[in-house]
Amino acid sequence: MQYVPWDDQYADALCELWNQELGDRFPMRPALMRQNSFEDQNVVKAGSWIALDAVTQRPVGFVVAKCWQEGLDIQLGIGIGWIQVLLVATAHRGQGVGRELLARAEKALREQGVEKILLGRDPYHYFPGVPDESADVKTWFERQGYHSEDRLENDLLGQYHEPAELELPEVPDGRFRLLTRADENAFLAFLHRCFPGRWEYEAIHYFQRGGTGREFVVVELHGEIVGFCRINDADSPFISQNVYWAPLFADELGGIGPLGVDAEYRGRGLGLAIVEAGIVALRNRGISNIVIDWTTLVDFYARLGYRSWKQYAKYGKAFS
């Protein structure tokens, strides 16, 4: 086996390997792989490797390691590193390839000062954990010293069989509306105050990539933003997490989330209403399949007809 450093010249071949192993559940697109695994500034090159078959020189495995490296006034996960993905072709398992790739990733993350590694949950992640049905993968990581955390994360799916033209919900002393580009500074200030961290980070990237505001429904009271809901579709400025697996659907897939309401205004039903507003916006775009990703709030969203579609087990490993 030959191990070579992370290099985007292999991107298409790695995409083929992914789809060979996972494509029936998590179909990969070259644009998504490049976005999440090559263009993300947080990829640790020294910890990201490709295993090549010595005869064919084709990739048979790879690992992507990350830790926070961006020069923004935000930091995701102080002391945290991530294994974004570790994949080995079925025909080459049991030969120590996965252990070698993981050892290289862990060594590089240690050298970056990482104190704990999480599986998934990285910036531009694919998964919020290990797909729960992959029992062999969970067992393998447990043997490598990774420990399961408490509850499962869920991707939820809602499907609508009749087209509809719907009105946004009404709210006393306020309104729901889509953002515009002119709202960028006010919206980022709202997120920085109420939801600093990942949601703020993702919104900064959204505007940096040319977002116009059409991916955010907000609720305003007395002219001030007090809540938001992110909505995604095929026209969004980058491939967002709740539409990653759109190739599984014959019709266009839309996504809901993240979403949140200023703590000062909670308890008024605005959380459910902002989700309803996001659903209305997507359905009015002709979208009939909608995913809400990375949540434990299964019962909350069941009130709107959403059911668990995919589940993920959270794993981590602390360095002593």
From TrEMBL:
Pfam families: Acetyltransf_1. Signal peptide: none annotated. It comes from the Bacteria. Residues 1-169, 174-320 form the N-acetyltransferase domain. InterPro entries: Acyl_CoA_acyltransferase, Bact_Acetyltransf, GNAT_dom. Transmembrane segments: none annotated. The lineage of its organism: Bacteria, Bacillati, Bacillota, Bacilli, Bacillales. This is GNAT family N-acetyltransferase. Keywords: Acyltransferase, Transferase. SUPFAM superfamilies: Acyl-CoA N-acyltransferases (Nat). GO terms for molecular function: acyltransferase activity, transferring groups other than amino-acyl groups.
